[in-house]
Amino acid sequence: MMEAFGSTRDGEHAHVWTLRNSHGVEARITDWGATLVSLVVPDRDGRGADVVLGYDDVGAYAAGRAYFGATIGRCANRIRNASFSIDGRRYVLARNEGENSLHGGVRGFDKRLWRTAEGSPPSTASITLAYESPEGEEGYPGTLSVRLRYTLDDDDSLTLDYDAVTDAPTHVNLTNHSYFNLRGTGEGMGDIQAHRLCIAGSGYTPVDATLLPTGIVAPVDGTPFDFRAAKPVGADIARADVQLERAGGYDHNFALDFAVDVPAEERSSGAPAFAAELCEPESGRRMRVFTTEPGLQFYSGNFLDGSEHGKGDRAYGFREGLCLETQHFPDSPNQPSFPSTLLRPGVTYRQTTIYRFDTVAD
Prior knowledge:
The protein is mostly beta strands and 362 residues long. It has helices at residues 58-63, 242-247, 264-269; strands at 2-7, 13-20, 26-30, 35-42, 48-50, 71-72, 78-79, 83-86, 89-92, 101-102, 115-116, 126-133, 144-152, 157-166, 170-171, 175-176, 196-199, 203-205, 218-219, 231-232, 251-255, 273-279, 285-291, 295-299, 323-327, 342-343, 349-359. It is built from 3 helices and 27 strands. Strands 11-12-13-14-27-23-22-17-20 form a 9-stranded antiparallel β-sheet, with no helix packed on it.
């Protein structure tokens, strides 16, 4: 089902589609930023609640700064000095976080109106959106054509299938930036520190004072970053640790174990592998994340401060949502030891990420 979703100040008219399955799970997606607007899933007693942060209309998404539910591109995360080189030529990107580029620049894919893809009519269970990013947009080389298909299955999985092609060498690193709170995002939602999190990563990429990776992959063993066994998000978040102090909590990329030493072409062509599990004890809701990507950015909502007013004009407070962003590592264009984000003509970028929901007993 398609509905109008309002207009931006520039007069761009957005729409929202509702996908439903037979178990009462419902996802709403807008063509503004190919954004996941809401995701209703049941708790252990069958009561549904929206578990993602967001806004009520496109005007708020266009003005918002938190990337709620958005598709991020061309490159997710941070790129140092807003620049990189390809084949000896340097490209300067739009700066939007000091001297660096964050989440695609000043106006990334999250602030663009996508279109429904030709030949892929929306159904009750899926929708495919497309965007063509022209040569030079936000400083990136090449024209990049991107497609993203959202599919809601009867196993209560929301699957995101991405593909992209380019007419010149460029860097691509796409992700979804949903903030989750499995208690539900209405009144009384509370913060996410009691959520239990497991991440299938034995290494993570430490950051410097600007939150850019230092270039190494450090072991999580013996650190607050060890989520290999599930633990509450807040268990170690206040520990005296320079990495936590720099980010105000967790805002770090984890190197997923299944992707270590696996060539990119094998990852993208293979089945998505387990990356993380998030469980909220009070509601019993559980979300498992599967992906073909080598990294997972875990962000604990450290910069939410009540200034962003979301659905129903609710102010989203400190750590009331968390992100589990499947992607390549931050600043990969400038880190030759990281998995490459370089895409050349004749090659298709592919990525699949699955968010699968169920419940657990008390």
